[in-house]
Write a structure and sequence with these properties.
mainly alpha, 79% helix
Length: 70
């Protein structure tokens, strides 16, 4: 039962999937991704913030293009 939270903590910490696979002793990476790794509230919130930041930057692009043209 502790393997699921451990896998999720690795994911939350930004550990790459290949390393997580090795740490968990899985021969198939699909097992690591599909069975053991779960989307936590922390990771979901982080993804939403990243998307918000990306969209804010995209809004600035026309201004940047205009400045480059000058």
């Amino acid at each position: 039962m502790l393997r699921h939270p451990y896998a999720t903590m690795l994911f939350d910490a930004g550990v790459d999937v290949k390393s997580a696979q090795k740490f968990l002793g899985h021969s198939d990476i699909e097992v690591t991704l599909e069975v053991y790794t779960h989307l936590s509230k922390f990771k979901e919130d982080k993804a939403i913030r990243a998307l918000d930041e990306h969209l804010k930057e995209r809004k600035k692009e026309p201004e940047i293009r205009l400045l480059r043209a000058l």
